[in-house]
Amino acid sequence: MDSIHSSSYYGSEQMDIMGSSECESPINYSYFSHIVNVFEALQSLRQDEVFCDIGLKTDDGTIVFGHKVVLMSASQYFRAMFTNFNESQKNLVNINELNSTVLKLMIDFIYTGKIMISKENVQDLLPAANLLQLDYVKDACVKFLLTQLDPSNCLGIRAFADLHNCLELTTSSEAYIRKKFLDVVKGDEFLSLSTEEVIKLISSDVLNVPSEEKVYECVINWVYHKLDDRYDSLPKLMEHVRLPLLNINYISINVVEELLKSSHLCKDFIIEAFQLHVLKTKQLSTIPQTIRNTPRKSGQKVILVFSNALKIHSYDPTTNLWQFLPEIRLKSGKEIVEKLTLFKEHYVVVMGTGKSKSFLKILDLSIKPPSWISMVETLVFRESFGLAIFDDFLYVVGGSSINGFILSSVEVFDMSIQEWRMMSSRMFTKRSYFGFGVLNNLLYVVGGSSYDDDNSLILKSVECYDPRLDTWTQLAEMSTSRFDPSVGVMDGVIYAVGGENEDEECLKSVEVYKPSSGIWTSIADMHFSRCGSSVFALDGLLYVVGGKNGEVQIESIEIYNPNTNTWSIEEMSKSMGEIVGGVIVDKELVTKFYN
Fold this sequence. Notes:
Potassium Channel Kv1.1, Chain A; Serine Threonine Protein Phosphatase 5, Tetratricopeptide repeat; 3 domains; four-stranded antiparallel beta sheet; flat
């Protein structure tokens, strides 16, 4: 009867229920709750001590049961234990390194994938995760500690990270300490540091302090906290305080008496500070570059923008905040600032024209109040020229003479001996009002104006100068003639921004040049036509500031994102006037001027 039933059900020939379906590929199906359900069952069996083949015993006598195959599948520590060592034949193993509470949490995690981390247990969980090689738990502990960083505990967290080789936590805590330095040094953790630890902290080149006076004060406070024990450490510490960056009056009133009273061994640092202040009022080039006269960095950048009214504003791209810096206004009389560049990260080189001469001045941002240093005049009067720093030499290219003749010559200023000299090589084309940029140790001249048989020309030609060889090379032309374009350099690409064409139309178009391809290509247009704007590259974005369209001042910033080929717009400070240029500097260099 059963055989008859079987035959009638399957038939002597199996029925083809799929028919002529065109779908021939098999399909994988996944039941995502399956693994969860299996491990829930295993956890239940473990808690009831069913099929358990291993017991883990801690020093207080607690035994945590489990299944070897499960523990081995989750932890290389247990895999080695149960395959290569004597414990592989045992059903009870001593785990002396962990207490019972932590071991239970670790084994529960292996079975459930869940763990509760708190302030009370994180210092036990992280080393336990290291021991058992449970990377997820270690990473979770690191993330938890990152959320707990505070000025009162960040030094301890950094020491804990160092002890357990947590690179991410060490790096993040150190960055936090540098950022919150002023709050950190007020806490008990700072006062309990060793001499070596204090030196490591204050020797950092990246430290968020409004002035070096704060570093000096924290060192003095640390020494006086346990004066008898720390007196001999003062000279070692003062070697890492950058006394030449302190205000000269502050040194005279606060530092001299304090240091000499505490340690006569520090007198050399005081003498050095006074000597460098004297040198700064005379000749920039004679100042020896040492770590103690190099301003610290915060890691954050701002753009210093100079207007033709000789006012200086700072722009913070992270906050879109403009601030006027009245303390560093250039007292220039009838001098007109034309070009700016940056030398050794904290000297702003300013060049322009007076009644019958071209002047060169340098602004030292490292001290408060800042000082202007007048340098030797150029050999040739120039206006509408190009200016760039390369290998500590200042190059001035082209422009117009006092009689209006357009120039092709190059002169260079040697910072070390404060002397100008003319270079023998000249541009192929005389030009002024051109864009100028430096890329891959070459100086690029873009567009501008010239003349031919007394006819004025708006140029689309481009050439580059090799300062080391004193030679010029002609490059591919742009697609558009550009008078007074702006040039930016970012990620190996030259950007020719705006300018006026031969019909005196102000342009919103932008072209880019890659030396690897040797050709110019167009990118997205700006929102506004701009001539004579200032261009800055910062954090992967290109900032185009100000400019003119005819006689109309453009009071906005356009920001180009090369990843999306799009421009966004931000407003400028309304009180600035016409922008003549700017430089990108560390934020802490200017913070002290408005704090």
